[in-house]
């Protein structure tokens, strides 16, 4: 749990390149290996994130307020956090995603209450949607009371999250469908977690356990939005640009570490090493261009009524391109540093494990075919597809 004594938001962060962010990223990098074990969570890193004002940076009046056209800068910030520690980036992205869903679908009272949870208590949020056959049902008991039944898999942050946003099938007489709710963890019965579920290739520190919510009782004020809101486009699929940003951060870390490693070995005049660094550099920069374009275009297209499909198609292109960039960057980095470079305590093997795991995001095939579907069905000429 994040220390209650951390400072309130005092953020003066104006860009992902600010000195404050650079210092934070260095701290995250220095701590990353400490939480790289099953069952661990990067508590100290999140204490520093809270202290640096990161948890509330998208709240009203803050530098990356969701009401401002700041998506590009949010993506660049997510990328930097991913550079510091991919597991921290994953959990932070979930926190930002939950705050965005509250921004989109919360009522005034909820926005105020959840905003205070972040500002005053540094509470962590998350979004837990993935489930297996024993997924969640939200039973309406009447009188504005509900009880949950079932489990979620891949719950990043697990018991360290104080305000998980959980989805499930609402079963009630007057309303039914896929419903979001936010669980005030200190107010409900203990939520058992299955740590054995999480024996992953990488991303150990994301603590993405399986949790059983059966018997958790909620009130009307804990339900967010209406059934079906969670899947509303372009917000649902368009959000892929955020995880792509975090992923690119790890690839950028590989480039940075490879430069340092080869410099230290004085292997910088070799033409093959130059060629690999050259390729990694242009790949990372193309990833940056994807993020910047996706951020700017999303902000513009969100103001247009008929652009939801275009936002989703562009997000699908961004995540698909960045997946390829990350895969190729890992290969190039490993060829550059060789077996000796893949030994601990050097960071390459951890970043490789973490990035390989975190690149496995939902529906990659559907994302690619979705781009094709959009292009076949839009009336825009080819040169004008993304204007
Ligand atoms: C580190 C980490 C943290 C995570 N944290 C969270 C979290 O906090 N909250 C959360 O909700 N989720 C979380 N997830 C889960 C994540 O969002 C995805 O749901 C999950 O990674 C996808 O799992 P999968 O690759 O096994 O998916 P699958 O859907 O099984 O995909 C595997 C492959 O099968 C293909 N495929 C998919 N459907 C079909 C089909 N019907 N027929 C044939 N092929 C198909 C896909 O395109 C892909 O190629 C996390 C995942 C990771 C790796």
TrEMBL record:
InterPro entries: Acyl-CoA_DH_C, Acyl-CoA_Oxase/DH_mid-dom_sf, AcylCo_DH-like_C, AcylCoA_DH/ox_N, AcylCoA_DH/ox_N_sf, AcylCoA_DH/oxidase_NM_dom_sf
UniProt KW keywords: Oxidoreductase
Domain Acyl-CoA dehydrogenase/oxidase N-terminal: 26-115
Name recorded for this polypeptide: Acyl-CoA dehydrogenase family protein
PANTHER family: ACYL-COA DEHYDROGENASE, ISOVALERYL-COA DEHYDROGENASE, MITOCHONDRIAL-RELATED
Span of domain Acyl-CoA dehydrogenase C-terminal: 243-356
One Pfam family recorded for the sequence: Acyl-CoA_dh_N
GO function term, MF aspect, one: flavin adenine dinucleotide binding
